[in-house]
Amino acid sequence: MLEVKDLHVTVEGNEILKGINLIAKDNEITVLMGPNGSGKSTLANTLMGHPKFEIAKGEINFNDILLNELSPEKRAKLGLFLSFQYPQEIPGVSVRNFLRTAYNSVKGTKLSPIEFRKIIEEKMNLLKVDKSFADRYLNEGFSGGEKKRSEILQLAVLEPKFAILDETDSGLDIDSLKTVAEGVNKIKKKIKNGVLIITHYKRILDYIKPDKVYIVKNGKIVEEGNIELVEKLEKEGYDWLDEVNEQLQV
Fold this sequence. Notes:
Elements: E1 2-11, E2 14-24, E3 29-33, H1 40-48, E4 54-62, E5 65-66, H2 72-78, E6 80-83, E7 90-94, H3 95-107, H4 113-127, E8 137-138, H5 144-158, E9 162-166, H6 174-191, E10 194-199, E11 212-217, E12 220-225, H7 227-236, H8 241-249
Parallel strand pairs: 3-10, 3-11, 6-9, 9-10
Antiparallel strand pairs: 1-2, 1-4, 4-5, 7-8, 11-12
């Protein structure tokens, strides 16, 4: 479904990604792990088409469509979704109105507030989100957990073909983490989409089971495997990958 081939990405002239190869399949959980500064969020933003991140070489293919030159809006309409690591506050715009505007744009519809109400309430019931949440201004005054639940609500409403979750577990307490993970599992079960989870830690993977795991360090994929690879990282950290990375540079 999503294939990254020999992807090199620069930011302000500095090469951050140095030949990433990655495949994330439909109806599977793919995980990308790595230490700070390894290129995880750079990959997420590049996949979504952020103009700051320039592709110097390589390809991003989504369902056999080359994404390299497509705008973020066109990628969203194809079915890509990015959950931000640091969701922005938008004062004066309610969660309900924001989601209706996003839904109409991505789906190419013109649902009225009354027509959209049924959709958002169905998703809020699915995720066990209080109905008052929809009338609050987007992320304004939200706790860290509420901001992440807002992102998962967007995921549920938009029902993308492929979701990129960039450190969705960052800063969450254990209860919020469980709530977010449960939401992701429910959505995936319902719409059978592909999911790429980008994370530092194992803890979210205690609740969302990965089908494939990639580890990135210094802008390159240095290991790939399954949940056993995550267990090894938990015990040994990232230092053992230094030797692997040195071998790749030879």
